[in-house]
Design brief:
- The protein has 186 residues and is mainly alpha-helical.
- Helices cover 56% and strands 3% of the residues.
- It has a two-stranded antiparallel ribbon.
- The longest helix has 32 residues.
Length: 186
């Protein structure tokens, strides 16, 4: 019974890690299919009242850096992105690096090892620190999913269709493969 319980926990942990790994594949897919003219298109509404798609991608990457610095200071952080100057190519490369480090952080945080190094999750100085674990994963993934939705909506509102010829971010089997995973979503 105890062995079955540990196997079930390991399967849940592995599924969470695989889901986070596919998270960056979603971001990379959007970056690869986004019309470059949409990158700095002004959001609708009052001037200065919202972020551009470039600024949102920079925000996502820079938030990852805060999580890494505060929760896993032993892991090397890539350079931050300037929301006003970064290119799509720079954002894609930066996201790939910060996603890999966040996956390392989550792998340690979700480990049952007594010597794990990631025991807390800090989203920044503005909020409470949480114990590292599944809630950490849920926050990280939902934060990125929220902003992916914003990116797709902003592109649409600016007149640029993204992912209209493919199931895109909903075709998890392909995303799993793109992330280099050999399992399938389960």
């Amino acid at each position: 019974m105890a062995l079955e319980f540990h196997a079930a926990l390991a399967e849940i942990r592995d599924s969470l890690l695989e889901t986070y790994a596919s998270n960056d594949a979603m971001n990379q897919l959007i970056l690869s299919e986004l019309d470059p003219r949409a990158w700095r298109a002004r959001p609708p509404g009052e001037k200065g009242s919202g972020r551009t798609i470039a600024a949102i991608f920079a925000h996502l990457h820079n938030c990852r850096l805060v999580w890494l610095k505060n929760s896993a200071p032993h892991l090397k952080c890539p350079a931050p992105l300037d929301p006003d100057r970064c290119t799509m190519k720079q954002a894609a490369a930066a996201h790939k690096k910060s996603a890999a480090q966040c996956l390392r952080m989550l792998t340690d945080a979700l480990s049952a090892a007594p010597n794990r190094r990631v025991a807390k999750f800090s989203r920044g100085s503005w909020t409470q620190t949480w114990p590292a674990g599944a809630t950490m994963f849920a926050y990280m993934f939902s934060h990125e999913a929220h902003h992916r939705g914003q990116i797709l909506m902003l592109a649409h509102q600016a007149g640029y269709r993204v992912l209209h010829k493919t199931p895109g971010v909903w075709h998890w089997e392909k995303l799993w493969k793109k992330a280099g995973l050999t399992t399938r979503p389960h």
